[in-house]
Amino acid sequence: MAFAHVSVMTAEVMHFLRPGPHRRYLDGTLGGGGHAEQILIQSSPDGQVLGLDWDDEAIVAAQERLSRFGKRLAVRQASFAAAKEVLADLSWQLIDGAVLDLGVSSHQLDSAERGFSFRGGGRLDMRMDRRQALDAREIVNTFSASELQRIFREYGEEPQARRIAAAIVAARNAKAIQSTEELAGIVARAKGSRRREHHPATQTFQALRIAVNQELQQLQQFLEHGYELLKPGGRMAIISFHSLEDRLVKNAFRKWDRECLCPPRTPRCNCGWSCKVKLLTKRPVLPSAQEIAVNPRARSAKLRAVERI
Ligand SMILES: C[S@@+](CC[C@H](N)C(=O)[O-])C[C@H]1O[C@@H](n2cnc3c(N)ncnc32)[C@H](O)[C@@H]1O
């Protein structure tokens, strides 16, 4: 199956990163390579990009698409949470810009055998990094009802988390749950037949995907020290697709922008912190109506950006 993914908010990402020659960039979520390609074009003739992705299929597809850039592109199968180590391995000290375009690609969602979507009937999998042992089937068939409930509530903001967890445990006691279709059916029956805008299993599937890939932990780890990757004047843009991710990005960027982290009314600052970045986006930038019309996947995107001081 050809790798299909339409990049989101490419013009806005380029507006903030301002790619130019002699510079080095990190694309921490390479996917189909759309953002990396634009960075490479705009940083001609010698700008360089390190592209990271957890997904072996994304790595192969992006390398093929971007082969014309030769050594200007370095690609590694790794989490962006390990960006610092990979950059050190390449002897790239500090970089001029970084982009993260979080979540799943359309290719992952549309490939039934990757088990991300309730459509298509693939085996329950949802691993971005297929070298990893834990998959969605294991979570669904072995985690306790209370753990499942927590996952659906925390990561899916699913109001019927308890009912869904109980239905899953009842179903798996009869027979292990193997496919996305079976799980979608169990969730739909547990939630009842009220008319809805989205498939009743949308939030449950999102929650499971986040749990399988530890997506929030990876992002949080990156955000602990992410500003340290950038040269002074270097810029970072992050696109998120749901409120849990956006909150982490917003809070981290606000922290990086603060002069001091001492509790209010501390007589003299003793935190040792200093302002690390300038916020380039006080509020998140949203995709244009034209982009959403052409690419509905863009509708929930939010972009935030900072510049290293
Ligand atoms: C929305 S797509 C990126 C699309 C890409 N920007 C483009 O223009 O084609 C997200 C990609 O990030 C990858 N990904 C998600 N979390 C990751 C992580 N922690 N580390 C590395 N890659 C990750 C996914 O495998 C997926 O390929």
Polypeptide structure, described:
The chain is an alpha/beta fold. The chain has helices at 10-17, 34-42, 56-65, 83-89, 106-110, 136-142, 145-156, 161-174, 180-191, 202-213, 215-225, 243-257, 289-294; strands at 24-27, 48-53, 73-77, 95-101, 230-240, 277-279, 302-308. The protein has a 7-stranded mixed sheet with strand order 3-2-1-4-5-7-6, with helices on both faces. Helix 3 links the parallel strand 2 (48-53) and strand 3. Helix 8 (161-174) crosses helix 9 (180-191). It is globular, with a radius of gyration of 21 Å. Bound molecules: S-adenosylmethionine. S-adenosylmethionine binds at residues 5, 7, 29, 31-35, 52-55, 58, 79-81, 101, 103-105, 128, 218.
